[in-house]
Amino acid sequence: MTSKWIPTTNLLELRRLGKTCEELGELIAVLGRTICQGIDGVDPASGETNIERITKESADVLAQIGCNIEAFHLDRARIQARVEHKQGRMAEWEAMFEHRARMMGS
Question: Which terminal CB of the chain, N or C, has fewer other CB atoms within 10 Å?
Fold first, then answer.
């Protein structure tokens, strides 16, 4: 029996995917800290506010995404269409949340 799960051995692909995971992990860590400390909280190690760290780590993730688009010849138009779809859904969700918060007096 042959498995369809054959990991890549391409060193450039491994490097690109690994670096993307690393940058995503750094952004996730900052987002988690922001949930605990608040947006204006300060990272004691760097002295930067959480919003500064979110900005930097988001930029790093976007840089990796751009590199992946190039390296893997991803369809930019398809990606943009998906981004717009997800942003629209998020706006709908947030509007429902705001409506519920107003109803509850928040």
Answer: N
